[in-house]
Amino acid sequence: MRVVSSSNEQLGIITLQEALEIAGNEGLDLVEVAPTADPPVCKVMDYGKFLYEKSKREKEARKKQAKVILKEIQFRPDTADHDYQFKMRHAREFLTKGYKVRSVVRFRGRQMLHTNLGRDVLHRLVTDVGDVAEVELGPKMENNLMAIILAPKTS
Predict the structure, then answer these.
(1) What pTM, to 2 d.p., does this model score?
(2) Cβ neighbour number for residue 46 with a 10 Å cutoff
(3) Do 2 and 40 contact (CB within 8 A), yes or no?
(4) What angle do CA 35, 38, 44 make, to 5 degrees?
(5) What does DSSP say about strands 145-152 and 100-106: parallel, antiparallel, or unpaired?
(6) Structural domains of the chain ordered from first start
(7) Tens of pLDDT, residues 50-106
C-alpha cells in the first residue's frame, strides 16, 4: 500500500506491518483514504482530530445553506372582503421577504359542494399578488382543504 506521513510526505509503497509500525512510533493512526486506488493509499494521522475537523466543516456547510420557510394563510369560501384584503397584504409581505406562502381554503360541511368558491378565492389571491409571486403548485384538494403554494418571483 502507498503511505503518506503525517507531514504529507510520500513514504512510498510499503507493507501493512511497516505502515502500522510507523504510525505506532508517531503515536498516530493509519487511515485508509483511497481504498479504490491501485495500490490503496493510507495516511498516518490522528483519526479523532480528523473526524472532529470533518464534523466542523459539515456544520459550517449546513449554516450556509438557504432555509426555505413556508408561511400559511387560511381562507374560507365566504371570507369577507376586509378579511381577505388583510390576509392578502400579509401574503404579499411574506413574499417580498422571500418566504413561500401556502394559501389554504378550508371547507366545512355543505361548503364542500361549492369548491368552485374556494377556487375563486385562490385565483383572486394569485391575481392580487401576481406582481411579486408565481404559482409553484396549483390549486389542489386535500380532504376538506384546497391549497396553493406561491413562491417569490425570481427576476
Answers:
(1) 0.57
(2) 15
(3) yes
(4) 50
(5) antiparallel
(6) 2-61 (3.10.20.80), 70-152 (3.30.110.10)
(7) 899 999 999 988 888 877 888 999 999 988 999 999 999 999 999 999 899 999 999
